[in-house]
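Board work, copied verbatim: Cullin family profile domain-containing protein
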Amino acid sequence: MCYRPVIHPDLCFCCGPRNAYNMALHGFGEKLYSGLVTTLTRHLQEQVSASIEAAGDDQFLEELNRRWLEHDKALTVIRDLVALMDTTYVSESHKTPVLSLGLDLWRDNVIHSKEIQARLPRALLRILQRERMGEVIIRDSVKNTKTLIMYLEPSSYQKDFEKPFLDDSAIFYAGESQVLMERCHCGEYLQMVERRLREEKERASHYLDDSTEPKIISIVEEEMIAKHMRSLVHMDSGLVSMLLRDEYEDLGRMYSLLRRCAGGVSTIRDLVTSHLRETGKQLVTDAASSRNPVDLVRRLLDTKDKYDRIIAGVFGDDETFQTAVSTSFEYFINLNSRSAEFISLYVDDTLRKASEEAGGKEDVEIVLHKVMALFRYLQEKDVFEKYHKQHLANRLLSGRAVSDDAERSLIAKLGVECGNNFTSKLEKMLTDIKFSQGIIRGFYASQGVDEEAGEGPILAAQVLTGAIWPTRPSTACKLPDEMHDVCEKFRAYYLGSHGCRKLTWQTDLGTADVAATFGNGQIHELNVSTCQMCVLVLFNSADRLSCKDIQQATAIPLPDLKRCLRSLACVPDMNVLCKNPMNDDIAEDDVFCVNDNFTSNSFQVKIDTAAAEESSESEQQEIRQKAEEVRKHQIDAAIIRVMKAQRVLNLDGLVAEVAKQLRPRVLPDPAVIKRRIESLIEREYLEDNRNQYQYIA
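↓ predict structure ↓
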């Protein structure tokens, strides 16, 4: 039984090896070698190439691959047939070995065939285009063809296939991106880009050369991302819309795709910064928002939380985005000259509510940590200190502080940001309160009275250091006789052990718990201010009193008395007094009496509580004036410190160094620093020598 190879039907397998061996053995190697070349060339030209060229477009690659596999197998058979020639004549004559010869002949007669060479790239590109359009193709045909080309002639892959492939891809994606930009919203477009990148990566890894993958990915990035980058982020459904709608998945997809291109991250960052600044500016400059400062700061904190989540979850904690958000907050927070006051009011409101709510003490530390982020953006931290000092005093004196630990925690945070000089007086205020508790216990012990169970008025005095606590004009108030007697006894006790000190009663800062029985027999404990207590006690001996009578009996200034009476008689559900006539205006001849019909579901009733309120215009001006006056001395001290260290310095250098030293507390205007320099020159601390300043004091 004989096997006849495909390439030469005149030879059979049983006699072929013997004939080839004999020819090589007897010196006919050249004739055998040239005959092999001639036979293979004729076979490849007349049968193989003709068969491939005759194949239709759809069968072209399949026929090419089928013929290549046959040829590859036939070469193995031929090599075995002429093994002796391959090892003797070919080696001695420096001819091309049989296997390499077969490959060369295939390349020259098939691949380099004019028609096949023209059709092959087009066939590959056509089938790849069909796959991009969603059609399922036989990937093995493409993969085998690519392998064949790379095996035979690597340069042909790059020249005849890769370059046309990349050029066609650029045209395809340029057209597709334009259509998608017109038809899709931003999120859909980004999903398509993501899909195309995934497909090209998979396509390249499956049947393209490794060197092609980064090139085709670069084409997709350039045509679908880089050329439409600005249009994408500014679309109606683009970046701003995603921020407003909290579409974090699409936002992350945009960041992931645009960061592939030069300038992509900065394009996103610039628009995020612009949007945040505009949003923040509208928020802090809106007149309606300023009327509710606590809600304004809460909204600022919510905005900060939102962008922190975006940076961490979407932008991968990119430091440039963190810097952009920080500079944006610093920009718009300082657009409102009252931001320092508003943040202090928010802190005050938080600490007061935490003292009343269950679980509030556990949450207050989280809130304080968030507030400190806003505090860092303030350029007038010294103004915040003035307001915070005032609000802290109100909390401590009204017993509304959440806890000593919470207050000290906040002070410690402020100290870390601004130094111990910023917080030393705040710490002393807490010390005064603790010291006062010991004093009041000693007072009652000296009287032989149990302060909890004693009869008559119970005094809880707070002894405050005048130079530490915020000062303000005191409202005169004549205390009831029984209360006045207790106060005088305390004065005698305190001065007996602190003879060099002076006590001044600040009744307007105090509160009182008053037990009140109404006409229906209901008993309530009213938590009121000292002035309100003085008014209420008058009704123990009188049924009806006019505003003028009350003013004469208590000596409370009329404007303060009117505010006091309004809170007692004109607040719904808190009107323990009745007013005639019944309106919100208080006149001197208005008559007041006890509201016997007053009821409340609570035993303890707070009237006109000392909740943080927005400062009056005059108080705001006074606080700012004090801050500016202190700031002058701080600038002077900073200038002197710098000049003592440098001895000689020019104007710009001196202004920059002073601003750097003061930044933890305040960011002064360079013009203010220059005026302080001129003041020190006038006082002969410095000398100006042609714009070179010298320390001479």
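Residues 1-13, 609-615 have pLDDT under 50 and may be disordered.
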